[in-house]
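Check this:
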Amino acid sequence: MLALLIKTFLVQAFSIPSDSMMNTLQRGDRVLVDKLTPWFGSEPERGEVVVFHDPGGWLDDTYTPEPNVAQRFLSFIGLMPSSEQKDLIKRVIAVGGDTVSCKKGGKVMVNGKALDETSYIRPGSTPCDDKPFGPIRVPEGRIWVMGDNRDNSLDSRYHQELPYNGTVSNEDVVGRAVVVAWPFDRWSTLPVPDTFDQPGLNAAALIEGTAGPGALAAAGALPIVLVRRRRLTRGRTGR
C-alpha cells in the first residue's frame, strides 16, 4: 500500500527508451520523476526535463512489448513505468504565452531571446537545422518540448500537423525528472540550464501577452510563483 501511494503521488522511476535526450540521458538510464509538485498547482517551467503521456499521435507506430511478471511487479511498486502507458521524456523549451522559433543555422528563440544551449544539447547537434520552425505562439496551459539530441528527436517540431501545433497539454505531464538514479556511475541531478534564467525572458512574454487586467494580475503573481517553485526545486535537486 505504501509503495502504491509513493508511486501515485510522490515519485516514480522511468526508463529511458531512446537516444533522443543524449547526452543528458542515455538509453537505459533510470530517472526519478517528481509527481508531487504538480499537486500543489505548479506547472512545467522552461528548461525542465519532463515525462508526459503521449498527447495522441506521437507514439502510434511504437511497438510496446508485453511485460513479464517481474516487470509488472516493478511497475506496481514504482521502480518501472506502467506498461499500459506510453510516455515520453523531453525538455520544456517554451510554456503557455511564449513565442518560440528557430531558423536553419540559427538558435532557438523564445520571446525574442536566443537560447545558449551548449550546456545540454548533444555535441555536434544543431539547434534546429533538421527541422526549422515557427514562430509559434504556445497556447496557455501547454508546453513546447524538444529533445537534447536535437538531430534525433521526434519532438514538438515533428507534430505541428496535430492540434495545437505540436504542443503538449500541462495535464499530460506526469512530472519533472529530477535525478538520474541508475546506473550508479551516472547518478546526477537534472538542473534547469542557466540560459532559461536570462534577464528579459519572462518580461518579453508578459509584454507580448498583456491584454488587460487579467494579464496584469498574472504579471503580479509571477514573481511569487517563480520564487516558490525555485525554492522547491533547489531544495530537492540543487537547481
In short: Residues 20 and 152 are 6 Å apart (CA to CA).
